Amino acid sequence: MAVDLSHVPHVVELAERTAAFVREVVVPEEERHDGVAARGGEAMRVRLQAAAKQAGVFAPHVAAEYGGQALDMRGRAAVFEEAGWSLFGPLALNVAAPDEGNMHLLEFVASRAQKERYLRPLALGEIRSCFAMTEPAPGAGSDPAALSTRAVRVPGGWRIDGRKWFITGADGAAFAICMARTSGEPGDRGGATMFLVDADNPGMKIVRHLDTLDESLYGGHCEVDFDGCVVPDEAVLGEVDQGYDYAQVRLGPARMTHCMRWLGIARRAQEIALVRASERRLFGSRLGDLGMVQGMIADSEIDMAAARALTLQACWELDKGHSASQSTSIAKAFTAEAVWRVVDRALQICGALGVSGDVLLSRFLREVRPFRVYDGPTETHRWAIARRALRTATR
After folding, report:
1. For 96-109, what is the mean pLDDT?
2. Is the entire prediction scored with pTM above 0.90?
3. Domains, the chain, ranges and CATH?
4. Would you identify the family this protein belongs to, as annotated (predicted)?
């Protein structure tokens, strides 16, 4: 079966407008705040998103009824990569994690009332959100079946108890999508349910901000405590005990949108290195005329082209309604490492300039390194890839 990886004209045009918007409007903000989101504050988010709406590039991924342009996964690949040229580009377009993945999940799973209450204001950029699944050891992490946060029925609803951590964007989020066990025991493959928890619920509290390498995501990475957190029956997202199935609705596409965004930063790093290699002279020639530097530049071009092709292949499968588990794992594992290599080579080519704060390469390096852990460590994906391959071989 042929795989069409080309983009239709309106996607190409939107990607071009996104590229211009990010370079002209977003990059100056990013450079002003050294790529650290907290320095810009909520005022910067509001300002950038208003500018994106004015430019007609805001929320390209959600349905038109919620103010978006309903791009499929392949269309998102072109536009999100251009947004990812800046660390703040995804925020400006409202396609940053975790909100983008939560919008995708809510569109597929939420009831009409839940969409109006949570999805619409989220898609419009009026609020932010978070996704509360990961737990401190020995709870859910790389193995989601280790889920230990529990929800039990109470009159009129559910009581949630448990501790979550590394919850991106929790500080300032209007609501959380919380995964809790409603049947079975930690280690069981089923029995999870998703709940919509408003931030003003007295049973949900932010315990602390984690100190992490990356600082470009709004609301940081937080530890969140659910202690006697009571929610009504209408807070159940989808059906009881189906949370793991819904997680797959979110996680596969979210892994690909991470790949798209970080490819933008890889391209940006490569361009910085190319300019430096073209202008810097030493040992009687341009830096770019040296064979070792040319090899690094070529390897980065190969890494980016391969990562983009793998991502598009997985997106095509998702658009066709396939599970794409193998393709998304392959694309995520490869791209996470490829982006790191590209940024690392760019920093090396730039030498002392790359290590300095005069360009943002050192910030990019800190931002892309956790991608090899987030949304499943590379080793977990390799394990899953091998298991699927072995199952195929023994049929």
Report:
1. 96
2. yes
3. 9-96 (1.10.540.10), 129-237 (2.40.110.10), 244-393 (1.20.140.10)
4. Belongs to the acyl-CoA dehydrogenase family.
